[in-house]
Amino acid sequence: MNHSQIKETLLRNPDVKKEYENLAPIYEIQEEIIQLRISNGLSQKDLANMIGTKQSAISRLESGDYNPSIQFLTKLAHALGKECHIVFK
């Protein structure tokens, strides 16, 4: 069984599917930050230095081991030439 098949099987369970969907926003944020950092030619250390934090904080954020504050996300956005907006849908 490959990853896609396992994921499909697990998501048939309504409880698992709900939890997976609840995590979607943080996965989207992680993906966006990683893509912006890479497209700007920045290492995790470079980005950390730009916002006055440690490389390990960027690594934790990108790996999903850290739930960032809005202030932290705003600093990241500005360092990457973007704005941070929170939208409720």
Residues in helix, %: 55-70%
Q: Largest beta sheet, briefly?
A: none
Radius of gyration: 15 Å
Please report the total strand number as a whole number.
0
Unreliable stretches, pLDDT < 50, 5 or more residues? none
The averaged pLDDT comes out at 93
Number of helices: 6
Structural class: mainly alpha
* Distance separating the two termini: 35 Å
Strand content: under 5%
Name the shape in a single word.
elongated
Oligomer: single chain
Q: Topology as H/E string?
A: HHHHHH
Give a brief rundown of this model:
The protein has 89 residues and is mainly alpha-helical. It is 67% helix and 0% strand.
Structural account:
- This protein is mainly α.
- Helices cover 67% and strands 0% of the residues.
- It is built from 6 helices and no strands.
- The chain has helices at residues 3-10, 14-22, 24-39, 44-51, 55-63, 70-79.
- Helix 4 (44-51) packs across helix 5 (55-63).
- The chain is elongated.
- It starts with a helix and ends in a 10-residue tail after the last helix.
- The model has no long low-confidence stretch (mean pLDDT 93).
